[in-house]
Design brief:
about 425 residues, alpha/beta, TIM Barrel, 19 helices
């Protein structure tokens, strides 16, 4: 039986190769997974042209996934350095990589990335349009925006952020309800400017059916971008954000009618007490579609430490409905991340994702923690290193501070509670 997309196959009762791979990774029944893909509650971003892909599933009942952002910019144009980040991200088990390149030979980097990456690849085509056409934003036509989308799809991009929810109605709501930091989404701000300069509707909203035809042809997952995501605690859960979310819910149903898989992008910055209501709101308004969040960052005062503010918010968000975490690095708001910044961001996001999976009762998540506890009880250092999220750092810390007794560490020495309890319980005098 023929099919066009993973959703189309699922609705026809077909278990694709990608579904079988994801079911095996997640230890779930392939038939159950197929049902969730058919409903739109799970997506498997898998462009037909991404031949190096090792598919992953994102959504209800599956492990929380993480995304890594990278790419070249005008101030930091080094393709080899970004490709080294790609290699590192794959080694650190990132589930997806978004190429946010916005300058120079973006196609060259994107194609190399797709060639080497087994992780799902995402892009934001509106960034590429600015450099590709080498003309002012105002002069780019709606047709040219769509041409960029199709080129990314042909290249093999698995999911694309499309800010189709910032239509004229959303813009009117934004302009009536002033914000502290306006629009902080790069793609959202570009489309807002284009709309104002041309006095026209958002091209991605206006030609949404054409866009969906492209996505259906190549089986690209549409990641409906949150142009109005809050960039400060003060702007969280405001009229603009909620208005856009309502539109995204409508666009979700339209995409599903054409068998196009959908993810919804979300905030942003917000205080701890607003995270759970936001997760409920998104799932309700967007009909259970997988939710992809940036952070959320739970305070605005920690530049240089936003991988921590993001991990705190990410853990709470994922424990309460978010399915996909976009990593945040210590360099957020400050500079293009270095390789080390990227590593810290990945580890922080993986901690948040795993903590949420334990809370959600995801199959196998708790076993990892229990195995580490057993190794600690047994003072089995080698086993602890093997189980560590970052074995290299754990080994280095141990090596840098050697204890007098091998079965202790330099913090407690012979006063180690684990060591002494083991001896007492074994009836050995300390």
């Amino acid at each position: 039986m023929n099919f066009t997309t993973q959703m189309d196959a699922a609705r026809k009762g077909i278990i694709t190769r990608e579904m079988a791979v994801v079911a095996r990774k997640e230890c779930v029944e392939a038939a159950s997974l197929r049902g969730l893909v058919a409903e739109g509650k799970v997506v498997i971003p898998a462009n037909k042209n991404h031949t190096s892909l090792d598919p992953c599933g994102i959504g209800q009942g599956l492990k929380t996934k993480i995304n890594v952002n990278l790419g070249v910019s005008k101030d930091c144009y080094n393709i080899e350095a970004e490709l080294e980040k790609v290699r590192c991200a794959v080694e650190l088990q990132a589930d997806a990589i978004m190429d946010l390149s916005c300058y120079g030979k973006t196609a060259e980097f994107r194609r190399k990335l797709l060639e080497v990456s087994p992780a799902a690849i995402g892009t934001v085509p509106v960034y590429d349009a600015i450099g590709l056409y080498d003309k002012e934003l105002e002069a780019i036509t709606a047709e040219e925006f769509l041409e960029v989308v199709e080129q990314h799809a042909k290249d093999g991009v698995d999911f694309m952020t499309i800010h189709a929810g910032i239509n004229r109605e959303t813009v009117a709501r934004f302009e009536k309800n002033k914000r502290l930091i306006n629009i902080v989404s790069r793609g959202g701000s570009l489309l807002y400017a284009w709309m104002k300069l041309n006095d026209r509707e958002n091209p991605f909203y206006m030609y949404y059916d054409v866009l969906l035809d492209i996505f259906r042809k190549y089986d690209v997952t549409i990641s409906l971008g949150d142009a109005c995501r809050p960039g400060s605690l003060k702007d969280a859960t405001d009229a603009s954000q909620v208005q856009e979310l309502i539109v995204l819910g409508e666009l979700t149903r339209a995409a599903w009618e054409k068998d196009v898989q959908v993810m919804i992008e979300g905030p942003g910055h917000m205080s701890l007490n607003e995270i759970i209501p936001n997760m409920l709101l998104e799932k309700k308004l967007c009909h259970g579609a997988p939710f992809y969040v940036l952070g959320p960052l739970v305070t605005d005062i920690a530049p240089g430490y936003d991988h921590i503010t993001g991990a705190i918010g990410g853990a709470i968000a994922a424990a309460n409905g978010a399915d996909f975490l976009c990593y945040v690095t210590p360099a957020e708001h400050l500079r293009l991340p270095t390789l080390e910044d990227m590593k810290e961001g990945i580890i922080a996001s993986r901690i948040a994702a795993h903590a949420a999976d334990v809370a959600k009762g995801i199959l196998g998540a708790r076993r990892w923690d229990d195995a580490m506890s057993e190794a600690r009880r047994d003072l089995d250092w080698e086993r602890m290193f093997e189980l560590a999220l970052d074995p290299e750092k754990a080994r280095r810390y141990r090596a840098e501070s050697q204890p007098e007794n091998e079965d202790t560490c330099t913090m407690c020495g012979k006063l180690c509670a684990v060591r002494n309890m083991n001896k007492v319980i074994s009836n050995v005098i300390i």
